Amino acid sequence: MTSGRRGGLLPLYHCLTWLLPVVPRTLARRAHLRQGASVARLGERRGQATLPRPQGALLWVHAASVGEVAAVAPLAARLATTCGARLLVTTTTATGGEAVARLLPAALHQFLPADAPRDVARFLDRWRPDLAIMVESDLWPNLLATTRARRTPLALVNARASRSRRRMPRTQAALLAGFDLITTQDGAVRDAILALGLPPARVIAAGDLKAATPAPAADPDVLARLAQSLGPRRRWAAVSTHPADLPQVLAAHAAARRLHPDLLLILVPRHPDRPGATDGVLPDMPRWSRRETPAPDAPVWVVDTIGDTGLVYALAPLVFLGGSFGPEGGHNPWEPALAGAAVLAGPRTPHAAAAYRALVAAGGAEVVADGDALGNAVATLTASPALARMQTAARATATGASAALERTLVALLDLWQQRRDQGI
Questions:
Q1: Residues near 30 by Cβ (< 8 Å), separated by ≥ 6?
Q2: Is 68 part of the annotated catalytic residue set?
Q3: Which residues touch 117 (CB under 8 Å, ≥6 apart)?
Q4: Is residue 34 left, alpha or beta, with left meaning phi > 0 and alpha meaning psi from -120 to 50?
Q5: What is the pLDDT of residue 3?
Q6: What is the largest CA-CA distance in the chain?
Q7: Are 254 and 334 part of one and the same domain?
Q8: pLDDT in tens, 74-90
Q9: Mean pLDDT of 172-189
């Protein structure tokens, strides 16, 4: 492990960011403003806290954006309560911060500082966490090195498959060597991490935390009104779509409607306010942000609001999950599966590979190659008893995978107690 710790690109990275801190600072500032985050909180990107540190023990959880916050929220709440500690959650995105406010209202939220050494030191000087937990894959070299140098226990939870481990094994080994505990989404990810030379006792295949996230709720009164408004039309949904998904989804829907003229597509863009989400492509479609519902002949209904996927999953028995035709790497399929929807996805899902392996093997999900295959799947399933069987398999598989939270919680409590016993 000596060569792994010192190898790769990390020494060069540390040197460059020390000599040229303006680069990570500028990138962080641009991202902050591009996301529409509050200008008043821009100093957080320099490690300047906008909230006071509470007295007593503090758990720090870093979750990059919405998906990671949703995955870790139940675990973080349980851990903080059990340890009698306050909870600080950092995110890199503004939408992640909104998710913290919604899912962890008792937590403190700050934006992650730029990975410049002085900014990281300023952040850690202020917050002095008793335990640091990183979620999935948003790992910053200076942040990890400085946290570790201060003898703060470090855990990485819900680690997923990563191409970087194959492409830059020495750099990845150096990044991961500082963690006291790593939990992975499945055995395959654990094997990939152990292949880097990490001690087996530190790496646990706990399962995917996203399978333990409760299915999103739907307001029963709103759901009843929408179901009555939509009537008996066949329905499917495309959720968390990105610009690269949109042409494939719309072509698939047009093909499926040739067989099922009443078929309705419920389209839920991942980032409804970003250019290319739907603008210019679906200018005249009804939008839920304006509380519009589709007319009987409307082919598409755009649900361009945050937090309404529970309604969508309750209305659509078949869900295509976006981020799987473009470079995004796929999104969490456990959420629609737990809600009882059958799941479809494109071929690019490395960020959710473990979940798709389990769901496809159980018959609860299907991966399609392109828009033509997606159209065939939608047209076939919406008229087949196989759809109900697929829904049942998806929900059963997701429910069975939900023990990941308990396994991860036990491992983190062990780490917490060990470090407390050692006086750290």
A1: none
A2: yes
A3: 14, 17, 18, 21, 142, 146
A4: alpha
A5: 36
A6: 68
A7: yes
A8: 999 999 999 999 999 99
A9: 93
The stretch 94-102 carries a mean pLDDT of: 94
**Domain for residue 230, yes or no?**
yes
% of the chain beyond a pLDDT of 70: 96
What six digits make up the tokens of 377?
């799947």
Concatenating the DSSP letter of every residue in 218-267 gives --HHHHHHHHHHHTT--EEEEEEE-TTTHHHHHHHHHHHHHH-TT-EEEE
Q: How far are the Cα atoms of 63, 86, 109 from residue 92, in angstroms, in the given order?
A: 8, 20, 11
How many domains does the chain fold into?
Answer: 2
Look up residue 344 and give its two tokens.
């479809």
Phi and psi, residue 99, nearest 5° = -65, -35
- Using CA of residue 59, residue 64, residue 70, residue 75, what is the dihedral sign? negative
The pair phi, psi for residue 13, each rounded to 5°, is -60, -50
Cα–Cα distance for residue pair 159/135, rounded to 1 Å = 7
Q: What is the average per-residue pLDDT within 233-261?
A: 96
| The one catalytic residue among 44, 68, 335, 366 | 68
Spatial separation of the C-alpha atoms in residues 352 and 236, rounded to whole Å: 21
List C-alpha distances in Å: 358 to 7, 252, 353, 407: 35, 25, 9, 18
Distances (CA, A) of 417 to 131, 411, 420, 421: 11, 10, 5, 6
> Residue 91 belongs to what domain range?
2-205
> Residue 365 is inside which H or E element, if any?
strand 365-367
Please state the rounded mean pLDDT for residues 396-408.
88
CB 116 within 8 A of CB 142: yes
Q: In this structure, is residue 57 part of a structural domain?
A: yes
List, for residues 310-359, the tens digit of each pLDDT value: 999 999 999 999 999 999 999 989 999 999 999 999 999 998 888 999 99
